[in-house]
Structures are given as structure tokens and as C-alpha cells.
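Weekly sync, protein design subgroup
Attendees: M.S., D.O., the rotation student, P.L. (late)

Item 1: inverse folding check
M.S. brought a backbone from last month's batch and wanted to see whether the design step gives back something sensible before we order anything. D.O. pointed out we never logged the input encoding, so this time it goes straight into the notes. C-alpha cells as presented (462 positions):
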């Protein structure tokens, strides 16, 4: 390392790597020209459709392609049509779909808070979204109404050097697996990434600051003073002081940014900018068996057909379901090491246990004998129970050793008891249809569909 290559900042090696990364991710002149041409064609087509409607509306391009922060190869264009704030909601939806279907005739109607059209135009993926033209991001009639205000705020603050730093940070977050505000990833959104670079000046500034974060962290670009947020990272939306832009970020991904920021500052490498999904090997059955023998644990997996819902609905339900199962198993005396969820055509609730079986009895400790009323109730409840050992006195309390309800975790998961654990609604419906419980070596049956997921489970990294 050179003299200035320290953990306190960027040296020549850091900058050389960043230049190499930029060579790969900065859109070239031809790509920028194509983007401008297609955007102009879209504007013209949309304008023609607006003129045929009995209402005033305008067009605004939003998102990374509007602010120059898109990465080479990205072909996504977001076009918003803004309608008057007093337009009836049903009419806005009708006009939005009319325009969208005319401009993108082979597109699909998608539904968020209200419908919009997504499709392909001259090789670019286009979202054409109707919204209300509101005066401020805090005066919303629908969630998408704030997006043009995001655009206005950032366009005056992002020049070419800032845009270049945003692209580098986006690629870094992709490389460490922390980019994307979808509810599967729960990482950093494009808008949040831009705000962080604007706040801290450049890529180096973000990494140096993140390396020193001590959650909870609050960033308030416009000094609004925030509403109460119970999140590890709070970035107050400069266009809407009630909103935390980082609300979706999981503590894991915030910690992941901290970890890799420190790693890159101390020992720069281009590998931090390569997505882990590009390098994850698919684990086969024999390697899984080797890990099971080495670990000596008892994994179980609940396997079922994935519900036909979008990822932003599926993954929160999978997380709720696995947490419900974990809590129930621990309440029954089964020690859980770690859990995971996998999803493709099938979905998996994966639980690794210290042991699959528990003894036939469990210890149940009563109140202190000195607490006469409660202690007497406890004693009376068990004194005639022939299925328990006790009550007896241990130190200052009554104790019984009673029969355990479940001695086999797999039996618990195969029983109707699984439906009492607080499953996600559509996960519960899928399990009610049919599901399979795999135990121990049987989980090798998951490798054809989930070999990469098992690699990430059994060979975890930061």
C-alpha cells in the first residue's frame, strides 16, 4: 500500500479501482444518445395522447435516467403523467391506463396504489405512471405523487461528478448484496443512495461516514425535524418530513454497508463491486451432507408450492411465517440455531435445530412458596396429576416435571399445530393445500432448485 492508502481515506489504489469500476458502469456516449432519443419519442407519443383528453396534464421523466445516475446497461425509463389535484381518482386511473395502453400497446397493466402500464418501447423497459400534481410531497393523494418532488429536489443537486459517485455507490451496494428497496432485499433504494451521496459529498464520504455509524442514525437533509421513527437508519425525506426514506432498510443491510465500507477503506478490491449472485456456486447433495455431518445438527424444512403473488407480498409473509414457527418451536423446547426462507416455484421454510427430539418431560417452575396464594394454586393444580413428577420443592419454589406436548419437531410441523403459529395469510392457504416436511439428510432433495440458496446458508459471508 502507498503512504496515503490508509483506513482513514482513499489512496491511489482506491482511486484506481474506482476508475476501473467506472469504465464498466458509466453509460457511454452512444448509450446516452439512445436514451435521449427514446425519451424524446416517448414524450411525443404521450403528449399526443394527452391532447386527446379533456384535461390538462404534463409529462415528467423521473428516476435514475432523469438524473443521470443510471448504470450502463440499465434500460429502464420512468415517465409520469401529472394530472390536476382536483381530478376524480377513478378518472385519473382511467386516463392513466388510456395513455399507457396507447403508448405501450403490448404492455401490461400493473397495480400498486393505483394502476399503471409497463411495457417495452424501442428496446427500453418503460413504466408509464399517472399521478397528481400536488404542491408538496407532504400533500399526497397517492404515494407516487411525491416522486416528481424527489426529482425536483435532486436535479438541482446532482451534477455529473455527483452522478458518477452515485453510480459507484450503487454498484458497491449491488456488489455487497444491499441494493434494492424491494421487500425481498430490504436494502438501499436508488433515491436513498442519491441522498446519501448528496449529503456526504461523494463515494468516499459515504463510506467513511457509514464506517463510523452507531445506530440509530438520523440524517435530515432539510432540517425538518423528524416524526418519530423506530428504525436503525432514518433519512428524513426532504420533500415529506413525515417519511423515512430508509424505512425499508433492514438492520442486516445497514450493518453490511458498515462492514464492507470498513473493509474497502482498509483493503480496496474490485471484488466488492461484483454482485454475489454472479459468483454463488450451486451446492450439490454431497456437499450438503458433508456440512450436516460436520455440524451435527437437525435441519427441518417445510416445502410447499409458492403462492401466486408478487415478491413484495411473498417475502414479508415468508418472514412472518418462519418467525412464527421459530417462536413456537422454541416455546416447545427445541433450540433453533438459524432459519432461512427460499422461494422459486416452490417455497421453503428452513429451520436448523440443535436437536430434533426433546425428552418426554419438561421442567415447569412455579411461583415462590412465600407468595402463598399463587403458590397454593400451583400446588393444587398439580398435586393430583398422575402424569407429572411432583409437585416438589426446589430451593424456594414448587416445581413439577410434566409430560411434554411435543417431543419431535418434525411431528409438530406435520400436525395441525403449525396453523396456530401466526403464518402469513397466503402461506397458510398454501400449507392447507399440501406441504412436505423434510428432515436431516432428506433436505438434500432441495439442491436441484435451491442449490445456490443452500450455498449461501451453509457457507455464509458478511
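Designed sequence read out in the meeting:
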Amino acid at each position: 500500500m502507498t503512504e496515503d492508502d490508509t483506513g482513514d481515506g482513499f489512496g491511489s489504489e482506491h482511486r484506481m479501482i474506482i476508475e476501473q469500476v467506472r469504465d464498466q458502469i458509466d453509460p457511454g456516449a452512444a448509450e446516452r444518445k439512445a436514451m435521449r432519443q427514446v425519451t424524446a419519442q416517448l414524450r411525443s407519443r404521450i403528449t399526443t395522447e394527452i391532447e386527446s383528453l379533456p384535461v390538462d396534464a404534463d409529462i415528467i421523466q423521473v428516476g435514475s435516467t432523469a438524473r443521470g445516475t443510471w448504470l450502463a446497461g440499465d434500460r429502464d425509463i420512468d415517465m409520469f403523467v401529472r394530472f390536476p389535484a382536483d381530478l376524480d381518482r377513478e378518472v385519473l386511473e382511467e386516463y392513466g391506463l388510456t395513455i399507457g395502453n396507447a403508448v405501450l400497446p403490448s404492455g401490461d397493466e400493473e397495480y400498486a396504489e393505483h394502476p399503471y402500464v409497463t411495457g417495452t418501447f424501442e428496446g427500453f423497459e418503460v413504466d408509464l405512471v399517472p399521478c397528481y400534481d400536488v404542491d408538496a410531497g407532504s400533500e399526497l393523494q397517492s404515494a407516487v405523487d411525491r416522486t416528481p418532488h424527489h426529482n425536483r429536489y435532486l436535479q438541482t443537486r446532482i451534477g455529473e461528478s455527483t452522478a458518477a459517485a452515485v453510480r459507484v455507490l450503487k454498484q458497491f451496494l449491488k456488489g455487497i448484496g444491499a441494493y434494492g428497496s424491494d421487500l425481498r432485499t430490504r436494502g438501499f433504494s436508488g433515491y436513498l443512495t442519491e441522498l446519501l451521496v448528496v449529503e456526504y459529498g461523494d463515494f468516499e464520504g459515504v463510506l467513511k461516514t457509514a464506517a463510523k455509524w452507531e445506530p440509530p442514525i438520523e440524517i435530515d437533509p432539510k432540517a425538518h425535524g423528524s416524526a418519530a421513527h423506530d428504525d436503525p437508519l432514518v433519512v428524513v425525506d426532504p420533500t415529506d418530513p413525515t417519511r423515512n426514506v430508509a424505512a425499508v432498510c433492514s438492520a442486516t443491510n445497514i450493518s453490511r454497508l458498515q462492514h464492507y465500507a470498513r473493509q474497502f477503506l482498509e483493503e480496496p478490491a474490485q471484488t466488492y463491486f461484483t454482485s454475489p449472485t454472479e459468483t454463488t456456486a450451486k451446492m450439490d447433495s454431497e456437499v450438503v451432507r458433508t456440512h450436516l455431518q460436520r455440524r451435527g445438527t437437525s435441519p427441518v424444512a417445510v416445502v410447499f408450492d409458492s403462492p401466486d403473488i408478487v415478491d413484495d407480498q411473498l417475502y414479508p409473509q415468508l418472514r412472518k411465517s418462519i418467525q412464527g414457527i421459530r417462536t413456537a418451536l422454541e416455546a416447545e423446547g427445541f433450540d433453533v440455531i438459524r432459519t432461512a426462507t427460499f422461494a422459486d416455484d416452490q417455497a421453503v421454510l428452513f429451520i436448523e435445530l440443535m436437536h430434533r427430539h426433546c425428552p418426554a418431560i419438561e421442567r415447569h417452575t412455579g411461583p415462590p412458596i412465600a407468595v402463598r396464594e399463587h403458590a397454593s394454586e400451583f400446588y393444587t393444580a398439580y398435586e393430583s396429576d398422575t402424569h407429572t413428577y411432583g409437585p416438589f420443592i426446589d430451593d424456594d419454589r414448587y416445581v413439577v416435571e410434566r409430560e411434554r406436548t411435543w417431543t419431535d419437531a418434525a411431528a409438530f410441523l406435520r400436525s395441525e399445530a403449525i396453523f396456530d403459529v401466526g403464518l402469513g395469510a397466503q402461506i397458510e392457504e398454501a400449507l392447507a393445500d399440501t406441504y412436505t416436511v423434510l428432515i436431516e439428510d432428506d433436505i438434500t432433495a432441495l439442491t436441484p432448485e435451491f442449490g445456490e440458496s443452500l450455498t449461501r446458508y451453509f457457507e455464509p459471508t458478511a
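Discussion: The chain has four domains: 29-154, 157-277, 285-357+407-458, 361-403. DSSP finds 15 helices and 15 strands in the chain.
Action: P.L. to compare against the previous round before Friday.
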